[in-house]
Each structure stands twice: as structure tokens, then as C-alpha cells.
Design a protein that fits this description.
This protein has a domain at 3-155 and 191-217: Rossmann fold (3-Layer(aba) Sandwich), CATH 3.40.50. The chain contains eleven helices and eleven strands. The protein has helices at 10-21, 51-57, 75-93, 124-141, 163-167, 169-174, 193-204, 224-235, 247-254, 279-285, 292-302; strands at 3-6, 26-30, 41-45, 63-66, 96-102, 147-152, 154-156, 178-180, 190-192, 212-215, 242-244. Strand 1, helix 1 and strand 2 (26-30) form a beta-alpha-beta unit. Helix 3 packs parallel to helix 4 (124-141).
Amino acid sequence: MSYLVVGAGPIGSAVAEQLAEQGERVRVVSRRGIGPDHALIERVAADATDAERVAAVAEGASTLINCAMPSYDRWPTDWPPLAAGMLAAAERSGADYVMLGNTYGYGPVEGPIAEDLPMAPTTVKGRVRAQMWNDALEAHQAGRVRVAEVRAVEFLGTGVISPFMLMALPQVLAGQPISYPADLDAARSWNYAGDVARTLVAASRYDGEWGRAWHVPSTSTESTRQLTARAAAAAGVPMPELTEMPIEELVRLGETDSIVAEFPEMQYMTRRPHVLDSRRTEEALDLKPTDLAKVLTEITTHQTP
């Protein structure tokens, strides 16, 4: 076995499938022991907070890729033991450690978001992500494990969970009005799930300096309004009425939905431009983003309104 992938969601499954298709042996760990069906993929049920168990499962692996994702409303309680368990497992097994992350740890940024920016979180979830990276980087600098983190903004792709995929695309396909919590005309990075997986795989094979972040190349940096119009055109349906949801309304929706209740603190990312600078990643890892037209064809074909 060459790889241990923790998490069998859309990204973890895509990583495992890409590796298996390239001839790598992969072990996928999840609580329920699920994952893609492939001759080179072994599915294992395990609790990722159990460092000893994960280290045992990782025996013989060259790389541990963390694609786990606790429920959005439980990050402060669920992420610390998960992250600690996987970091400890990587150290004990001798595997390299690649984390799937995001831009929360940067805090508000003016202009394009570069990969060498320091952690400066201003939110609860931002501090969780920053602490995860700082702990991993400390272990790397102490020589205990090689680490890297792949960061994305908002996912597009079949089966992924993101505000656009939950709160806009189904309404586009159903011809219903959309009230969306964002500045509808602010530029934003949109990351295709397949590109996220490709970046994780490429980062795991990098033969240069580790202890660094990689930014997933954006399949689009269009505004929410532009992306919605492009999605409608790809689906062959009229552009629906699209309005900006006030933060006050978002807060009210959160009173009856624990996941939506977590959205307001991250609104600084959606009420202003939020664009990744991925030039260093594209050059060093030889990556280019998937064409948006192809992504929109996929998600409008497979999404159920």
C-alpha cells in the first residue's frame, strides 16, 4: 500500500480513485468503512481520532492524506482530536502528511490570496484551521514528519457540499428565485472537486521543500451572478431571479438550522472579493484548472433540482 486516505466523501473518494487509476495501492479510512469500489482500493472502518489505530492502518504507507470533514457546526469540538490523531499517526507510521484545508486561517485579505501569507484568523473556524496547520508545521520543523496543506475556497462538483451547490444550483435547475448570502458581483475562486483531488495527489509527490501550503487552481474567478448565469446557460434554462440575501435573514435561517447558523461568521469571505493566487502551485506542481464549461456540464447533468 502506498497511500492512506482518511475520509470517504467526494474529495477523499476522488483522491483514492485518481491514485488507484495511476496504479497506486490505496487504503481508505472512514467510520463506516465506505469508499470507492476498485481493485487497488481497500476500505477500512476506523475512528480517525484513535492515533494508534490509524498508525496501524497506515503501516507501509508512504503518505497519509487527510480529507476528513466533521460536521460544520462541530468544528471546535470535533476537529482538534481528529487533527491530533492523524498528525500523531503520520509521525508514528513515518508517512508524509498532506492536509486538505481552506483559506479560513488567513482571515480577511485585501487582493489576491498568496500561499505564503501568515495565519491571521478572525473567526472561530478560522482559528481551528490555523491551529491545525500550526501544529502540523511545528511537527514538520521539529523533523518529526513532512507536512503540506492544500487549500481551496468553494467546491464545485458532483456530490460536494458548498453554499453554491446547496443554495443556488438546485434553484437554477428548478427555475426558482434565488436569495444568496453574498455580494453577487464580487470576484470569487471556485474550485472543482477533481482539481482539489489532483492538487492533493501532486502535493504528495512533490520532491522539493515541504512544510508549505498549495492553492488549488481556480476553475473560475467569476462572481456569483456570473457563475449562476453560466450554470443556467449550461443547463439550457432561463436565468432565475437572483437577489442578495441580507445577513439578518441568514441569521434568522440559522435559528432553525445548525449548519446555516455557522455561515454568518464567515460572511467576510462572500461579501468582498476572495480570489486565490495559485501561480506557484500551477508552476511547481504542473497543474491547470479544469475548464469551467466541463465542470458546469457535470454538475448541471448530475444535480437533482
